[in-house]
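Hey, resending since the last one bounced:
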Amino acid sequence: MLLTLTTTHRPATDLGYLLVKHPEKVHSFDVPTGTAYVMYPEATEDRCTAALLLDVDPARLRAQRDAFELSQYVNDRPYAASSLLASALSKVFRSALRGASKDRPDLAAQPIPLEIRVPVLRGTTDLVTRLFAPLGWAVTATPIPFEPEIGGDSRYVDLRLTGVLRVADALNHLYVLLPVLDDGKHYWVAPDEIEKLLRSGEGWLAGHPEKVLIARRYLAHRKSLATSALQLLEADQEPATEEEAELPVQRRAPLAEQRREAVLLALTEAGASRVLDLGCGGGALLAALLKQRGFTEIVGADVSSRALEQAARRLRLDQLPERQKDRIRLIQTALTYRDDRLRGFDAAVLMEVIEHLDESRLPALEAAVFGHARPGAVVVTTPNVEYNVHYEGLTGMRHSDHRFEWTRAEFAGWAERVAAEHGYSVTFRGVGEDHETTGAPTQLALFKINTSEGTEVSA
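The structure tokens again:
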């Protein structure tokens, strides 16, 4: 199977620096399903084309865990662009996908004229256009006909894309959308595929009109994974701009955004400047905290090293100015164990965290957070299970990893007991659209330490 990438940006041969592949050489790479080659059929100052050719070895392909409902021996895998080609692209152009170029860093960050061709791609003209056109591409998808004696068009198209984009953006579009169009990955789709999708879709997937279809197909129609990916995309959305706010009818902010705003308001009410985000995950709340100058010290804590890596990427910690970088740090820790690094803060946040613990582990969290760390205030949010009746088609809990979801009375009972045992007062509020019968979708508790209790206890 074949993919070509062409530019007319002068000097066009600088494409070799962006792809980190010399135009005068043929480069070969061993991949799990065969051999990938990179070559340049044309390389002049006016026009340069890089070709990625994947030679599929049928024996290796059969050895892979097959996700296709096709014959093991007769199929379109050797020639039709698919997740096989996307995987090869990821290995061969790893630096280019990240937008990294040691020799031409300014050019790597610059949109340049590009033309992409994929001669055989499974998909319809309509679907290909719906996927690529919103990303700034001019799309030509020509149906490939059957032989004249058969007549009609096959299920494949000859795809040409033209546009002015960064090379990294172009490659990431292909990496995600080739498997989406093929709709059948050649390997088992595990939860870590969510991170790959979000990483490659950064900056464009959240606003794509077909993001639901993309998430479902990329994640092999595994509903729980697609739901998690879409929730993370929603959490990444930026607040409304001033222009949006001036429109006669404002957009309804996503619940994740409303939740973050409610937490920030609670922290402000508590007078906090040194804040812990416990169970920080991918760092959505940390990013919001960092934008508020009143928070002078911010610590994100999570048990998952992968989540902390994702948070670091989201925050662009390696690119922050020193003044900003000094305000924030990430630490790995389990919230059910005492950790002296968490002591002495003005406030701690447990945003959508407690429901991911087995209820039998909650006493350990209570002792570690309210007893040992003992911040001046604690903000806890959790789903209100009573509101679930408003989610059409929802069966069970809102997330596959939730261990429980509480009613408002159950949450209030837990919070009031914890407050009484550890010397806090607590107040409650709803977050999101409030229904007269079921209440709001999210419930929030703000714990404040009793003044007479102080903020220091013996270990």
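The chain has two domains: 2-188, 255-453.

Sorry for the duplicate.
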